[in-house]
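Predict structure. Chain length: 217.
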Amino acid sequence: DVIVARDILISKETGAKLHLCHCSTSDSAVLVGMAKDQGLRVTAEVCPHHFTMSDQEITEDDGRFKMNPPLRSPKDVQALKDALASGVMDVISTDHAPHGAEEKAQSMLKAPFGIVGLETSFALGFTELVQGGCLSLSQLVEKMSVNPARVLDIDKGNLAPGKIADLVIADVEHQYEIDSASFASKGKNTPFDGRKVTGRVVTTIVDGKIVYEEGRS
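Prediction complete.
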């Protein structure tokens, strides 16, 4: 929170554009909201694990739960949901950080930081935020594609003739349990194994080319 406050003050004094990654606390959300109220050029991002899981769910010494920033309190989780709903938090990112199974099988003290997020981010967002009443489906799409493109000033994040075809097709009625063994990614290090979610990505298209299709290797 101290670093968030410091960087916002630097942005205020210099007029520099500031994007804050991996916000994870209620105080950070308050600080970002204050910055936006002042009209500062500040945007902010939150990761799915920080709005779906609290430190209360760490019940054993399991390296899969080790990430940076760490999991926070239930109060922080709710504050991040509220900040996403109000527009204070602009972006949802995956924070995808794959590691070998043997690395994450170590204790919290020895395991490296990071979890995989590519194959769980949409389902977690849809389940926790859309079904949870925080966001509409279109708002979730904005947080995961439209707004990131705007923040990074790249010509993506919209559907229009002549635009780059980066698309995801998802079945928003599909309910399932997250199973890391079925991931297409080589990285399996997720604390969400066994979690019941809704919203399964069935096809991913990058620059007009199908790079993932469910059921096809």
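Summary: The beta strands are 18-20, 42-46, 91-92, 167-177, 196-206, 209-213.
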